[in-house]
Structure formats: C-alpha cells, structure tokens
Amino acid sequence: MKPAVSNRLCILGLGLTTLHFAPSAVGQEYPVRPVKIIISFTAGGPTDIVARLLAHRMSEATGQQFLVDNRPGGGGTIGANLAARSAPDGYTLYVGGITSMSMAPHVHRKLPYDPFKDFAPITKLTIQPLMLMVHPSLPVRSVQEFIKLARARPGQLDYASSGLGGTGHLAGELFKSVTGTQMMHIPYKSAGPALTDLTAGQVQVMFGTMLAAVPLIKNGKIRPIAVTSDKRTVALPEVPTFIESGLRNFEAVSWNCMVAPAGTPEPVIQRLNTELVKIVNDPTVLQRLTADGVVGAGSTPQQLAAYIKSESEKWGKVIRDAGVKPN
User: Fold this and answer.
1) Above 80 in pLDDT, residue 254?
2) At what angle are helices 167-179 and 301-322 packed, to 10 degrees?
3) Cα–chain center distance at 308
4) 40 Cβ neighbours under 8 A, 6+ residues apart
5) 202 by DSSP, 3-state: which?
6) In this structure, are 191 and 102 located in the same domain?
7) Which pTM was predicted?
C-alpha cells in the first residue's frame, strides 16, 4: 500500500471512530450550563409542584441548575408551543401532560404545535387520580348526594377547572354525560387560581388532582367527595373511589411527562431518561409524591410515545361524545 493511500485510510478510520463515539461524548458531557424546564401552568399548582421537585433533584444529580419557567395560558398551549419552538439542544425541556399532549389536538382548531412531531419523548413522570371536591357550604358528602343535588339544581352549580379543554374540564363534561346532570364550567388559567376561588366559595365544585388540594382538604377548606383511582389513595384513605360510590363508567386520571424539542440528540435524551427514571423511582421521592396522592411512573421514550397516542385516542372520543366543540 502506498504511504499516501495508507495515510488517507488512517485519517478516514480516525474520523469514523470519532463519529462513532461522538454521540456518547455528547451524552456524557451534558449538561454544561443551566437547563430550563417550561411548564404551562402558574406556580403553586400540581404540575408546578412536580416540576420543582424534579428540577431540584436533577440539579443535584447533574451539578447544573434546572430552572422552572412558568408559561401559563391557552389551556397549556402557550408553554407547549414555546418549548416546541426552542433549540433542540437539551437546554429547554417541557413538562407536558394529558392536557397539552393528548387533549389539545381535539379542542383547538389550529394548534400551533404537533404533540407527536414537535417533541422528542423522554419519560412519563407521574400519574395523578382526579378528585371531585366541593366547597364545604355545599350540602353533600357522597357522589350520590352530589348527583341528586346537581339534578335538583340544573345549571346552577359552577365547576372550576385548570383551563378550557383540560383534564378537569373534560372530566366534568364526562361526569355530566354519564350522570345526566348540568353544571356551568368556569375555566381558569391553572389549578392554583381555581382552588383559590373554590376555597373562597366563588365556585362550588372542582374536578382536579389532589397534589395541591390535600393541604386545603386537611384544613377543612375543601370537602373531598370521591377519587378516580381504582383504589383509595394513601394521601386521603377516607375518601372513597367513584367505583365504590356506584359510578363505574367514570374513568379519568391526569399525568405528566418530560419531553424535549424534536431533534434533541439521542444521547441527551438517554441521559435525561436515565436520571429522571431514577428520580421518580427513588423511595424518598415516591414517599413525597404518594403523600400528596401522586404515583411516580417512569418509562422509556418509546413507551411514553405510545402512551401519549393511546390517551389522545381515548380522550378524542370522550370529547366528541360530550359534544365539546374545538375553539
């Protein structure tokens, strides 16, 4: 072999070796600067609580700051769109959920992002049962008493939710459909303000997650009626399930996941997946989440992608059957 040819082959071989190991190096080096985690809701709500817990633990695990960036509004679409349009470099992440990732395509005529094409799935984070809760002034303590009251006062009860087309809104519409009741929907920008007005008696009813509501319930400011999980929760063991209460065809849970803009390098996705799955399966984190009615739920990126699709199909049918019109 001629020296010139040999040198060229050696250089080519080194180049291929470099290319082969480059993705691994990217994953090992990441992150080298602060990482922003966008959420679509205001501070103090369920998603914000989960995001801040994860950000704190990710900062500890990586030695870099993970900072929560609250971008509420648009039923979760403003924050999701901002995240989808961010640079795919691993330094902008998004805590998505059932509202922005699976329900939004069915309740918005012109969604500014595509949940399936504009994001790279990382992992499922949590599953949160929903709860029917009321202001203590409402004279009901069970699902059957609530149904009876709602039927006696058609259209007179206001139910709050974290936003139009969100989990709480559609859970309320599903409840109305299966029970033959009529209530007025009052959408808020997030769960925090909705809970504030529920405790103040500005609205009488809310379908929401337990995470931010548990302290208010324990202080007697909100009365829990039933939860959507198949078993009673550790956080509120005295609260029955809807199944126990005789309403077997009412199924609704909320969930959160972590995604990145589409095109984010695979080694970065894998590094994030590894760290986040460790965190949501850590006994101390699970204890903190379980105490507030939340279940940790790590997954592979592929499992998350399939779950988002299945949830979209499920809730698309609920939305159509309930007659909710896209806005």
Assistant:
1) yes
2) 50
3) 11
4) 47, 71, 72, 73, 74, 76, 77, 78, 79, 80, 96, 97, 99, 100
5) coil
6) no
7) 0.79
Same domain, 122 and 262: yes
Q: Which residues contact 13 (CB under 8 A, 6 or more apart)?
A: none
Name the token pair of 181: 């009741």
For residue 160, pLDDT over 90 is answered with yes
Check whether residue 113 and residue 133 sit in a common domain: no
Q: Specify if 159 maps to a domain.
A: yes
pLDDT in tens, 62-108: 999 999 999 998 878 999 999 999 999 999 999 999 989 999 999 88
**CA torsion angle 278 94 326 250 (round to 10):** 20
Q: Do 118 and 148 lie in a common domain?
A: no
**In this model, does residue 8 exceed pLDDT 80?**
no
Strand locations in the chain, DSSP E? 35-39, 66-70, 92-97, 119-134, 158-161, 184-187, 205-209, 223-227, 253-261, 295-296
Which range of residues forms the domain containing residue 177? 129-227
User: In this structure, what token pair is assigned to residue 274?
Assistant: 């590894």
Domain count, the chain: 2
Q: Which of 327, 325, 319, 326 is nearest to 173 (CA)?
A: 319
